[in-house]
Amino acid sequence: MVLPSDLATEIVIPSCAVVGIVFSLVQWVLVSRVKLSSDLNSSGSGSPTNNKNGYNDYLIEEEEGINDHDVVVKCAEIQSAISEDFNDIAECDRLVRRIAQPLKSIVRPKLVRMCLSGLSSASLQVWSGLPSNAAPSAFMEIDNFDCIPFTIFLETNALGATLEGATSFLFTEYQYVGVFMIAFAILIFLFLGSVESFSTKSRPCTYNLHEMCKPALATAVFSTVSFLLGAITSVLSGFLGMKIATYANARTTLEARKGVGKAFITAFRSGAVMGFLLAANGLLVLYIAINLFKLYYGDDWEGLFEAITGYGLGGSSMALFGRVGGGIYTKAADVGADLVGKVERNIPEDDPRNPAVIADNVGDNVGDIAGMGSDLFGSYAESSCAALVVASISSFGINHEFTPMCYPLLVSSMGILVCLITTLFATNFFEIKAVKEIEPALKKQLIISTILMTVGVALVSWIALPSSFTIFNFGAQKVVKNWQLFLCVSVGLWAGLIIGFVTEYYTSNAYSPVQDVADSCRTGAATNVIFGLALGYKSVIIPIFAIAISIFVSFSFAAMYGVAMAALGMLSTIATGLAIDAYGPISDNAGGIAEMAGMSHKIRERTDALDAAGNTTAAIGKGFAIGSAALVSLALFGAFVSRAGISVVNVLSPKVFIGLIVGAMLPYWFSAMTMKSVGSAALKMVEEVRRQFNTIPGLMEGTAKPDYATCVKISTDASIKEMIPPGALVMLTPLIVGTLFGVETLSGVLAGSLVSGVQIAISASNTGGAWDNAKKYIEAGASEHARTLGPKGSDPHKAAVIGDTIGDPLKDTSGPSLNILIKLMAVESLVFAPFFATHGGLLFKIF
């Protein structure tokens, strides 16, 4: 077979990355075309049609306790007041609020919007200056004065607070994480540089003794640089994701007025911006780093790709703090808002009277968007690095065959193109016309991308790989055919889809497992908890079989390189997976804005339908993340064992077995820390929300404004403080074990944490997801069975809310963070493997 030239490969990979970035920008532009404006059916003279008491009937949405006469009287007062010449925007805003004060808070924005809609442009000039004094100008693309009152509400009450809170938290978190990043980078340099006493002399290569490799000091320097690159890219991925989400949520709310299809496209396109930016940036930065490092390393590919592993370590270490910190933030706010708001005060979700509602919306962005983006970027970087490290000691690594060596990057490049085509199916080729079509449309995305990717991988394998090659297999050489490596990637790809659909079966309220959990709420919260735990344990079975089969097939065909490629196969459609994952929190925030802005019940029903589908697909995304983490961790484990010079990991050896049993304990220790952190923060949040309801006169009536800032501060302080101990546990364990007990014990720790952590992560995520959707099943009341358990505020509903609040930290903090634990310890061990092999096991050397 004639392989494509190295020049063709050097063009294709960055070109695909650039295509992904350009496509994400196109999606951004399309989302930006959704203006924050009303759709007024006006005549040529500008007078309103479909009048009711002189105003557009769609702008007057009757509320309980407010009759049309009261509304018209208040409207007349506001119109009269605003027709005066105000030069001070704040004064104008205060006057409107004072006049509207006697009405319920959730009615005021509607009233202001309604009253101002009929005024002339000249009368509204004072309002047009508000954007410069409100939220960032990017949000204020106003082409119609009729939209200004609603825009003002969104900016000053919901979007501004959510954006400010999310940005403030991330900057605070990044300050702490930045200190860690610099300190750990210094640690990498010192540990790896000391392997050969900071010598600058070249040394014989480990796997090709006839060649000379660069000194260990070079590995120390370039590993440090790649670590910083990975960390910065991970932080950037999370931050951009958060910015995109806060930009898109109000636009999704406004598009929901036109129908569920328009809202779906806006939310999905916004998610696609994040998905393609992350996948393309991750690929491009990694490819550029490889080519820059090559300028120094030359033909020393063994040293080059050993140094590149720092990229995966940097990405995953930042993801750990993002997932843990963001998870603690969002779930503390969520639990506090639900327990007091829904259970005690019986007010709707996202009601603006709830003091924790802004903190809850902020949490959706910093946890479910920024944290999730950093997490999947870490998996993507680690699987690529694991595959490249193992490939560097294969025949095409030793013989310097660039195109076959870049096979993992070519698979990722093909993934970007496949996901681009798949996204067009969702946004351009098929129109969502009914609520029931939302979830199938998202699942079609997964199926289409998997089918197309299988074809794409076959093409890449046929073009980029020689018909046969040899790889390193624990001291032996194994001959691999190109079709065998294709099957390795494919088995990972399809195993991910199976895990995703099994996860959906156990977490979607369309199926019997969740409906059984909901039915158990008849007899209280205790039976709900029992059923939910049982569901989580049972949901582990099929995913573990899928992972086991993937490992067996891929290892049989191509040893650890096959396992690494199976992991990369599972993550090859990351752009689509991230788009679907980000779609959920964006829809959730859109519903929150609809509630706080007092929009009609019909619009809230549409955003709730989008959110419900997003919850299920988010659970599917967690299944992908956990499954890929297991494969990535095993591939990194294999690379570590190879780099550390271990030929056999003997479980019967005392050194290995003590590591095995301690490693199996670590996920429990880590989960205990994160669960306790959420509980402590939620306790403070509940007390604060109760205090405000009890001490602020008129808060329940809607005539007083809650103190949102205090609740945001509670979540911020708790998450920053509480993310440090779990992070230290994960980051320090490999260093302590490797230095004091040696590589054999460390290999046991890695194996134990992998086997234990995967089970707990799947169980925790699915249990929490089932409790969440059992609650939504009762609230929606879509079936006769669901209606017998409702309505909202009934005893079964309160029991379901309690189950949901227990499950929140399981599915959004502990569960997702565990997959980072098993990956991060493995990649950290790989990066420090030369040091552990040379200087590790101090205790066994002394005693």
Q: What is the strand and helix layout of this fold?
A:
Blueprint (H helix, E strand, L loop, with lengths): L5 H27 L18 E2 L2 E2 L11 H15 L6 H12 L7 H10 L7 H4 L19 H46 L9 E2 L7 E2 L2 H40 L4 H38 L3 H44 L12 H36 L2 H4 L3 H4 L1 H23 L8 H27 L3 E6 L2 E6 H26 L4 H8 L5 H14 L2 H31 L2 H23 L4 H43 L10 H42 L12 H15 L1 H18 L1 H38 L3 H6 L5 H37 L1 H7 L2 H5 L1
Antiparallel strand pairs: 1-2, 3-4, 5-6
Helix pairs in contact: 1-8, 1-13, 2-3, 2-4, 4-6, 6-7, 6-10, 7-8, 7-9, 7-10, 7-19, 8-9, 8-10, 8-13, 8-19, 9-10, 9-21, 9-22, 9-23, 9-26, 10-18, 10-19, 10-20, 10-22, 10-26, 13-14, 14-15, 14-20, 15-18, 15-20, 16-17, 16-24, 17-24, 17-26, 18-20, 19-20, 20-24, 20-26, 21-22, 21-23, ...
Give the structure's gist in a few sentences.
The chain is an all-alpha fold and 847 residues long. The chain is built from 28 helices and six strands.
How confident is the prediction overall: mean pLDDT? 80
Indicate the low-confidence ranges by residue numbers.
Answer: 37-92, 99-156
Largest sheet: 2 strands, antiparallel
Beta percentage is under 5%
Strand order of the largest sheet: 1-2
Report helical residue fraction. Answer: over 70%
The count of DSSP E runs of length 2 or more, i.e. the number of strands, is 6
| Count of distinct structural domains | 2
Number of helices: 28
**Global Rg:** 28 Å
How far is the N terminus from the C terminus? 57 Å
Shape: globular
- Structural class from helices and strands? mainly alpha
